[in-house]
Amino acid sequence: DAGVTQSPTHLIKTRGQQVTLRCSPKSGHDTVSWYQQALGQGPQFIFQYYEEEERQRGNFPDRFSGHQFPNYSSELNVNALLLGDSALYLCASSTTGLDEKLFFGSGTQLSVL
Amino acid sequence: GENVEQHPSTLSVQEGDSAVIKCTYSDSASNYFPWYKQELGKGPQLIIDIRSNVGEKKDQRIAVTLNKTAKHFSLHITETQPEDSAVYFCAASTDSWGKLQFGAGTQVVVTP
After folding, report:
1. How distant is the Cα of B79 from the closest Cα of chain A, in angstroms?
2. pLDDT (tens digit, 9 = 90+) per residue, B19-40?
3. CB contact under 8 A, B100 and A4
């Protein structure tokens, strides 16, 4: 049973560019959440997708956007990259219901130069 | 919004000793408290969780306690082993659907 998979594992971009990160949820999961983890800090919630709609959003600017596809996979897009966007981007999946547990992928390490 | 504070930031223990990590939360509406272990180059791995209707939960060498009145919860690791070395994060959630507020993490080092 494959867990949460993310691609690419590493990415280097320059300021002002745009980036797209991808995530496939754990089998049987229908909800995808994205987190940003800066070096030495805990993950911070960006947003969550369920039924192809953004259901909740954290305190991130509109430069951060996402999408969920009918097969539950998801993309995170970041426009007009800033140096401060350098971080580990984590995707987590879960299934709706009372006993929701969040399972994380290994992340995409984004470096903005 | 919810704020989670985690202490200590680093913890060094001898193999076989116990390790305790403490977290406090601010929102009394929080009802779900997971703990994650993150090894270098990997994503956080769920190791144990507790809901607000339970005061304590144990899974082999790992236990979590919750004090709703004081708004704090703790992770206890007994008989520590070198493979327990990692960064541990506590988190809290005021709603379902996977929006977690994480603490800043505790670097645990178990020395043989």
Report:
1. 26
2. 999 999 999 999 999 999 999 9
3. no
